[in-house]
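Large ribosomal subunit protein mL45, pasting as requested.
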Amino acid sequence: MARSLAQSWRRILAHQAPSRWCFEQSSEPSHFLLKSLPEVKSPGISCVRLFSAQAAASTPPSSPARTPAQSGKSAAVKLSITSPGVVGDPYSPSEPISFWRRCFTRSGQKRTKEEFISQLKSMYAIAQVRKKYGHSKKKFYDESVYLYQEINTLMANGDKKSLRKFVTEHMYSTLKNEIKHRNWAHVHWELIMPIVKVRTLRARLIGTDKNDVMKSFAQITIEIFSKQKFEAYDSNGAVVSGDKDKEILVRDIWVLERSLFHQGSYWRLCGRIKV
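Structure tokens follow.
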């Protein structure tokens, strides 16, 4: 009787020992993970780091595993943009109002407030451009006039290849279609120097990172008054529009754009406002 009981007890221990060992072994990683979670702010980050460490340990030296930081860096490079592709807060001319209407009517007071806020935004944007590039009014206007002359000359000559570097991607597509669909075989265009007048109408920052104001695109809207000579010809050389011996006064409103965080950036045409 005693001998049979002892044999049964040995059989029970022999069956239970392996299952107990397996349970303790499988619970050790979970116990380690639970202890490590309170030490960091995000449990998800802790889990990723743990699994990344295990993957790196099991990966052969010839093919190292990519860490989350490396993957994020690659994604950031792929998502980098050279232009927003749109004009932020485009300028629109407003009708003049009298002093009495501006001061003693609700609509006048509301408009005064909106114009004041708009001026503050422009001042802030110009201040950031000055801080980054040492922006001065004369230098900016000289660059604007040069850009205005070059783009119009290339448009007249139909030089789409050279035009690309002076405009943004979206604007290049627009100007390329204009050249393609115009009915003139050749154009004579001439800018009479000096420019009659250049002035700034609006300046804005188009941000890409809400935590860093310098990761933005500056857009400055300018008004250009100039005297020009224009004449267009058909395929036979006959004049179909304009007169190259006559000066005409032209008013244009252009939006120039420049990145504040790309190395080697410069002013480019990103939009035109109809007048």
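Note for the archive: Residues 174 and 271 are 10 Å apart (CA to CA).
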